[in-house]
């Protein structure tokens, strides 16, 4: 009888210990490189809120924001290796050349198109998730922080002269992100495309190293507004926002916590597509009020011409980079929108 009571006591103690341990929140390091107020920061924090809520507090995010652990490429590399759990960033192309497909332009004609095109259950999301898996990353969220356009340097005195692209301002030095797709796209506009890291853009605009900063979203005007003459909407592409998690870490989590993270990614993705347009307009007005920048959109005829020339050049380059199989998936997905 004594032995039986002892055995029961040990079993109860073990059970209590197990319950207590499983109830402890799992702490995950969440990072970004963004400035306060930028859309990508807002998207990331909304995902964090939803993940903690949907896990009933069993997930607790340890926030390391504003690039305190490095720039977005360094953060993606650390997430891939597992020293960071999650990162919210633009597509980290340097990890794998195939990730560059997220910079592909001339896909979406509207935000509604984009939401359907990049739906979590769609072919493109699944293709990109598989690409990230090669770098030991799990794609939880894929949305946008706005249409890419062209920021024109202050004192360049060419903003008002640019009404047709390709055509106007041929040969102008234009900063691009280090992307082969952007190289093909911006070169097709007749500009002199120069890959320059984001961290060097402010100084480059200040010193006149280049006159155009291509691949720019509107909320960057609040970063570069004092060295900018204006912003030209080209609607060539939507810059993508990715929330990525270390795949090994994701796979070790209980299924209910995996589901909580996946659900947080899906809900925050839908909200981002729904709310980005109003945010963009508010950022435009803020930049006009604060810095006096000019903002314009090319005429419909110029946009149609830019779309035709740019898509031909970029998609031809893309097939050489990514292969026919991936581009056929892209073409099929885009065709469903028509």
From TrEMBL:
Name the UniProt key words of this record, in alphabetical order: Signal, Transport
UniProt-listed GO biological process terms: transmembrane transport
According to the record, the signal peptide region is 1-22
* UniProt KW Transport keyword: yes
According to the lineage, what is the superkingdom? Bacteria
Q: Does the keyword Signal apply?
A: yes
Q: Which family does it belong to?
A: Belongs to the bacterial solute-binding protein 7 family.
> What is this protein's name?
TRAP-type C4-dicarboxylate transporter, periplasmatic component DctP
What species was this sequence derived from? Desulfotignum phosphitoxidans DSM 13687
């Amino acid at each position: 009888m004594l032995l039986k009571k002892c055995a029961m006591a040990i079993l109860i103690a073990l059970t209590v210990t197990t319950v207590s341990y499983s109830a402890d929140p799992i702490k995950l390091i969440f990072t970004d490189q963004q400035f306060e107020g930028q859309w990508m920061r807002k998207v990331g924090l909304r995902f964090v809120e939803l993940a903690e809520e949907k896990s009933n507090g069993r997930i607790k995010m340890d926030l390391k924001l504003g690039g305190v652990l490095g720039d977005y490429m360094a953060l993606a590399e650390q997430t891939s290796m597992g020293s960071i759990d999650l990162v919210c960033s633009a597509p980290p192309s340097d990890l794998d050349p195939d990730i560059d497909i997220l910079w592909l332009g001339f896909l979406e004609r509207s935000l509604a198109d984009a939401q359907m095109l990049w739906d979590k259950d769609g072919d493109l999301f699944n293709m990109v998730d598989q690409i990230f898996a090669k770098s030991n990353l799990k794609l939880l969220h894929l949305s946008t922080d706005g249409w890419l356009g062209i920021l024109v340097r202050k004192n360049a005195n060419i903003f008002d002269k640019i009404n047709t692209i390709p055509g106007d301002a041929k040969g102008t030095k234009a900063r691009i992100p280090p992307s082969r797709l952007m190289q093909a796209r911006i070169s097709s506009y007749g500009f002199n495309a120069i890959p320059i890291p984001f961290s060097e853009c402010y100084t480059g605009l200040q010193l006149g190293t280049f006159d155009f900063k291509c691949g720019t979203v509107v909320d960057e005007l609040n970063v570069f507004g004092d060295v900018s003459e204006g912003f030209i909407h080209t609607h060539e592409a939507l810059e993508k926002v990715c929330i990525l998690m270390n795949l090994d870490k994701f796979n070790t989590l209980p299924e209910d916590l995996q589901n909580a993270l996946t659900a947080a990614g899906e809900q925050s993705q839908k909200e981002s597509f729904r709310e980005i347009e109003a945010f963009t307009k508010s950022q435009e007005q803020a930049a006009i009020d604060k810095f006096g920048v000019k903002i314009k959109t090319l005429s419909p005829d110029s946009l149609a011409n830019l779309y035709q020339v740019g898509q031909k050049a970029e998609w031809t380059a893309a097939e050489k980079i990514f292969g026919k199989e991936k581009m056929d998936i892209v073409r099929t997905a885009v065709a469903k929108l028509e």
